[in-house]
# Entry
Amino acid sequence: MTENGAGERWSEGDRQCIAAQGLTEEEVGRQLALFRRGVPSVRLNRPCVAGDGIVVIPESERPSLFAAYEEARRRHRLMKFVPASGAASRMFREWYRCLAAGGFADGAARKAFSGDLKRYAFFPDLRAAVAAAGEDLESLIGKAEDVAILKSVLMEEGLNYGCLPKALLKFHDYPEGSRTALEEHLVEAALYARDAKNVSRVHFTVYREHESTVQTLLSQVIRDYESRLDTVFEVGISTQEPATDTIAVDSENLPFRDDRGKPVFRPGGHGSLLRNLNLLDEEIIFLKNIDNTVPDRLKTGTSLWKKLLAGYLIRLQEEIFASVRLLAGGGGTEEELKRFRDFAEKRVNIGFPTGFRDLSLSERRSFLFRKLNRPLRVCGMVKNEGEPGGGPFWVEDADGRGGASLQIIEESQIDRNDPKQHAVWLSATHFNPVDLVCGVRDFQGRKFDLPAFIDPAAVAITRKSEKGRELLALERPGLWNGSMAFWNTVFVDVPLSTFNPVKTVTDLLRPQHLPS
# Structure
């Protein structure tokens, strides 16, 4: 037996489980050590606001940014990357609660449910599913058969929406028929991830059990969208690798075991998708969540801001590359290094340690090269309207050497018992809608190794359950949080109209998701 790093030893069966997962004993031991040590809180310095961490693009700059985007379409490979494995079950939490209770609690709630049902884009599919079971949907609505209707939406004998990913749910209605969230992202990709050769590239990440269903849907619709949008789609699909799962522990921080005595591994959160992102060959990657999409009538504004963000990234990237090329060749006079530092601080938001000016010329060159030669992300930020989720902050360096960096922070990452930290959190003016444009190649055109820029300590420990037993689960550094902690980062103010998430099923009844 071998030591597992948690006070007990791995058996031969344990080692086989770890190997089958694609993990090593050393990696699992590292994960167990994280549970024991706990997750250090980040130290917020201040919120990012317009003019201090958040760029507000003047109207006068937009033409040049559009031009930079158009040039990028001619010279670079663009792609839209959509994490699409999000489960729809959380969307229907309230409906599941009603189903378990035997129906809606009062007449008003039942009347609202029945009255709204026809407004959902999936209503025609629901009617067909009910008819296939020998029933009439309008009759069920008239008789207030809540349970039968909810089962037809959520369960396998109906639409099975409770077990599908959001990608496969019908979001929007059109005269020619309704569209799934996945189809809406195809249409979006053709608007801003289309290159000069008329190829529109989009990549979806899905759970392994949904991969064939997603492939089937794509095979049914892709040719029609190519014809309608006058483009050729290159669509990639990848799954979250089992090797990115993490071990679960019990209340004693010992490996949690199932009823057969085997250690339990759980998906490591959206940070696990960094591996998928790292395998892509494209140079400029748009990143957006599957549930944030709108009907065609509102896509013009969304597309406009994607192009502006990409133009900003391209223009900034060219300035960074010019500086890095000079530094890589050993160049840079005192005057040039002052200019590079000013550019790094003011345009790329790079913090400098105390004593930087006391370093030798070669040490300052080396520092600037290391800091500038990194992946770059330009992130749209919307005004804070009280939506749950993370926001943009200046975060103090963990080593205490001075300086601060721009980070997207979740509330769970701060010490909420510290009144000062909580006050900084509450003072945030902007919110993270997950609207990123990423530059993932260096000044020589080589791909960055993205895992080299992770903050491995930025994990999250969450409380879950397995067959009624409580456990602690470990989430890897979030894809746009700790997994991009050491990227160069710029936040840009974008309109709230670009953020239209569907977190609950009733969000589909908001005006922006309904036909005009």
